[in-house]
Amino acid sequence: MGAMKRIVCIWLIIQILLIFGCSTDSADTLSREKLFHIDIGKMEDQLDMLQLRGSSTRHKTRIMMRNGLFYIANGNSSKIMEFTSYGDILSLYYNPDENPEPFLLKDSQTEGEISNRRAFQYPFKEVGEIAVTSDKILLVEDRTSEVQEEYDEEIEAMLNRVVLRFDRDGNFIDYLGQEGIGGTPFPYIQSIQVTTSDEVVVISRSILHWIAFWFSSNGSLLYKATISRDSLPVPGGSGLLPSFGSMYPDVDEHLLYLKIDYFGDVESAQKGNKQNAYFQYSRIWWYDLEKEKFTGWVDIPIKSSEFQLSEFAEKKEIRGIYEFLGTSRNNIFFLMAHYGEELFELVLLQRDGSVISRNLLEIPEQSVAYRVFHLTPAGVLSALLVHEYSADIVWWRTDTYMEGRDENRNIQDYGGD
Q: Are 176 and 218 a contacting pair, CB within 8 Å?
């Protein structure tokens, strides 16, 4: 653990230097469009982001977009809200013990009431990740009761998460566990993804393992892949230390993409070869679920910058680390890194290693207390930017870079399929 702590410290130094050492001459700024905002509060069309005494939330808040509709999961209030792109609330899934009675929506339990804007009650315990299929099946991460919890000694993790399924009319269908419908609870869920063929991928993790569960559209388990930290691929003979970054499924093929960051050997650095202790580069590997092995990789372009502590000091190169946001159709990887004050660089990288575009995104970090992104298969990047009294729902039309590359793309879907 000592080596990993040193790596983390080095990484933090790199990020600080990048913030103050980058210029903005190499990329254009991509326009951010604000679609609507929602207020902070407890009402059905508001977002609860605070705990008692104003401390920050410990529950997940997530956003996703499908066919021009936005779904926001608010763990603090145990609810999921559905909005149009103009900010009109269409539906609400909520725990009545944690929320006031809806005022803008008709409760589904009210007899004789017919409305296209409905509120659906469900006793959520801890709302987390969300996803939606093409036929509007809503998938929601929730925590199990303590009675259902169990400990997995093999991966050293508590199994206490399930994925609830609701039909388009708000009715609870069933839940997914590790084996499929009604299965064993998952460990901590990192993400829920829906592919273009409506297959559902649940990415879970423990301290030392990442586990992918790949289900058919009807809830049958197709594949399960467990990747441990000590089994991460390392370039032959390099002596580098791998660090697991993130994992996403391909939206069309039965592949998993793993971003791995490589650092120099800390032990050799302790013996005097200090440059080897720094971050070297990142690579995205793909794991074939049918072949059960890694079948390819692509290096992420190196983000480098020069700095010097004083005018008399020698200039040194530092390398930044890109965050992997996910993948769109046609194997295009979305990568983001801090570029400067309130600026982030977005790189679109093809699987063959060619860079489609480099753009800057403006995100007002000084006023944003919380942010979370969502990427559609068609390549639309949206975000929830939470301020002190309200939250903005914004997007960047990054799907314009997909034009001519995706024959199946339908602009009316706004990146939904």
A: no
Residue 29: its pLDDT value, please? 87
| Assigned domain for 352 exists | no
| C-alpha span between 36 and 131 (Å, rounded) | 21
Domain interval for residue 250: 36-310+370-401
Rounded distance, CA 329 to CA 196, Å? 9
Determine the 3-state secondary structure of 385 from DSSP: strand
CA angle in degrees (0–180, nearest 5) for 265-271-274: 60
- What distance in Å separates the CA atoms of residue 177 and residue 161, rounded to the nearest whole number? 8
This prediction's pTM: 0.85
**Quick check: is 354 in a domain?**
no
Question: Which pLDDT belongs to residue 276?
Answer: 47
Q: Pick from 302, 278, 373, 406: which is nearest to 70 by CA?
A: 373
pLDDT on residue 260: 96
- In a 10 Å sphere around its CB, with 0-12 CB exposed, 13-18 middle and 19+ buried, how is residue 213 labelled? buried
| Bridge partner list, 64 | 71
CATH number (domain holding residue 84): 2.120.10
Which secondary-structure segment (H or E) carries 215? strand 209-215
